[in-house]
Amino acid sequence: MTLVLALGLTLSLNAQAQDSALQINLRKILAERLPALAKIDEISKTPLAGIFEIRINSSDIYYTDAEGNYLIQGSLIDLKQKRNLTEERIEKLSAIDFDSLPLKNAFTQVRGNGKRKLAIFADPNCGYCKRFEKDLAKIENVTIYHVLFPILGEDSQVKAKNIWCAKDKAKTWNDWMLNGITPPTLKCDALAVDSNVEFGKKNRITGTPTLFFADSTRVPGAIEAKQIEKLFSAIK
User: Fold this and answer.
1) Does the N-terminal or the C-terminal CB of the chain have fewer CB atoms within 10 Å?
2) Is the pTM higher than 0.90?
3) Can you give the pLDDT at residue 11?
């Protein structure tokens, strides 16, 4: 038994050494052949034999062969399980702890017992955001953190800051998003809105709406109420 364990440990260490040497070699080859490629954060195996994942810029994914002869850009899809492995990987890499979100720069709406939590980065001029708000109105027992995220132009900035400066932010938001009532022109310290935009840039939030659930699940784009409920039910 001792001999078997020792042999197993030796094989494991040898495999680790080979993987380490392969990664070092790949980094060297890719740096020589693609000097414009950003610094590689990580090289890891994929389920596809001989193909390796190359991660740069925190969450940009490429693939290469063991000799670094080819660079593949696109999605790796498991056809048997019908899973987009690249998309799943990027979602995992771009996950943000819910408590790390700029919740102090958000206004809230509480419905029912408010136990479930959802943060939404939205632009007041985003048509998809307005459509999403109609589905969101069907969700109960939730605390919604609205993070004003004006990225669609100057008018978005103006509207977002007027909403932030309103006495009743939630009502002003709903009046505009659901009923088309333009937010009144108001003045106040609206640096929170600018901070939200900076946070988004640092954390690769590039579109609206972008949703964050309490388990750090990130969902880019508008989804229907039944999909929201499904994601809530998946949270342990």
Assistant:
1) C
2) no
3) 47
